[in-house]
């Protein structure tokens, strides 16, 4: 009877660890999607910056705001794009750190799951041996 209780406890721990691991995997996948979006935004802004760098100071620049084109100074446009790129780069760095942290958490959960699975299998074997002796 004691062995059966031990098997049940290990099974509960195993299920709890699986749930934690699944949550970390969801967070990891969400962080990967965020990184993809930020990469796209950064590449788009790099292309805009290259285009702005081709212009002369007397050239006109317009910014699309809703359905309207608003005239903007070239220096202001360059500054806005530069600030946007800085912000996106910092968000990208933060996301990369998060991904690395979640990767380590996944590894730790995998190790714990392996140990619990081994314990569970051993307990099941003991339980079946105890059942055949009785």
Automatic annotation (TrEMBL):
Coiled-coil features, chain-numbered ranges: 99-126
Keywords associated with the record: Chaperone, Coiled coil
InterPro entries found in the cross-reference section: PFD_beta-like, Prefoldin
Domain of life: Eukaryota
The keyword Chaperone is assigned to this record: yes
SUPFAM superfamilies: Prefoldin
Gene3D superfamilies in the record: 1.10.287.370
Signal peptide stretch: none
Presence of the UniProt keyword Cell membrane in the record: no
Family the UniProt entry places it in: Belongs to the prefoldin subunit beta family.
Subunit structure: Heterohexamer of two PFD-alpha type and four PFD-beta type subunits.
UniProt-recorded name of the protein: Prefoldin subunit 6 isoform X1
Species of provenance: Polistes dominula
